[in-house]
Amino acid sequence: MSENKVYLYPVWVRFWHASNAILCLLLIFTGVSMQYASLESPLMSFALAVSMHNISGILLTIFYLVFIIGNLTTWNGKYYRQRIAGFGKEVIKQMRYYSYGMFVGEPAPFKINKTRKFNPIQKMTYIAVMYVLMPFIFITGWALLFPEIIVTRLFHFGGITLTSLFHAVLGFFVSLFLIIHIYFCTVGHTPTSNFKSMVDGYHETHN
Ligand code: HEM
Predict the structure, then answer these.
(1) Backbone phi, then psi, for 41, in 5-degree steps?
(2) Residue 152 contacts by C-beta under 8 Å, 6 or more apart in sequence?
(3) CA 167, 165, 158, 46 torsion: positive or negative?
(4) 66 lines ligand 1 (CB under 6 A)
(5) Residues in CB range of 90: below 8 A, 6 or more apart
(6) pLDDT by residue (tens digit) across 143-181?
(7) pTM over 0.85
(8) Residue 7: beta bridge partners?
(9) On the chain, which terminus has fewer CB atoms closer than 10 Å, C or N?
(10) How far apart are CA 200 and CA 88, in angstroms?
(11) 7 in helix, strand or coil?
(12) Which of 185, 200, 205 most suits a substitution to test ligand 1, by most atoms within 8 Å of the C-beta?
């Protein structure tokens, strides 16, 4: 079996990703603490959870701008472009691999190389999370930081209540993504090879 290394994760992507992962974990922990902890049995002090949540959210927004600017100005952005033609067939092929092929030792249907960093399902998920889910969580989070900009009432509901509900639901989806993301990161060539790539920048291709 021949083995080659391809450099796919430049320093700025690894730096952004590590900061993003740590901040998201902090936001989930402090968010859950604010949502569910009571004064009698706090997961952590409510005031501390609020401060940490606010600071992490502000930092996450700044790092998100690094991701957007990086993807607009470097080669990395090309990995997030998706052709519509043939997309459905590609997703089905990858789904079949994830649900059957990989358990019987079939080779992955989409080889990773310099021009293709993500398989179709990975790409679709990353686009949805980074370009849809994250912007909405930022918008609702910043609105809650400056509640005076939120409409007072929408139909029969308070604007702030609706915004915080929406924000919490989005946070739930980010948490769900994180669990699925980490699981799929373990189904590389070996369970740790994708994590190694995010540390040293190199993806190992095996033929
Ligand atoms: C403990 C938390 C996390 C771990 C261990 C982790 C692990 C990894 C690993 C191993 C990769 C490389 C494999 C691949 O390209 O798919 C990766 C890539 C990626 N992860 Fe994560 N991740 C974490 C959190 C997150 C979070 C919170 C987000 C977004 C909200 C995220 C978004 C991404 C994206 C967009 C990529 C592709 C980056 C690029 O190469 O352009 N990750 N992650």
Answers:
(1) -130, 75
(2) 158, 159
(3) negative
(4) no
(5) 110, 120
(6) 999 999 998 888 888 999 999 999 999 999 999 999 999
(7) yes
(8) 202
(9) N
(10) 33
(11) strand
(12) 185
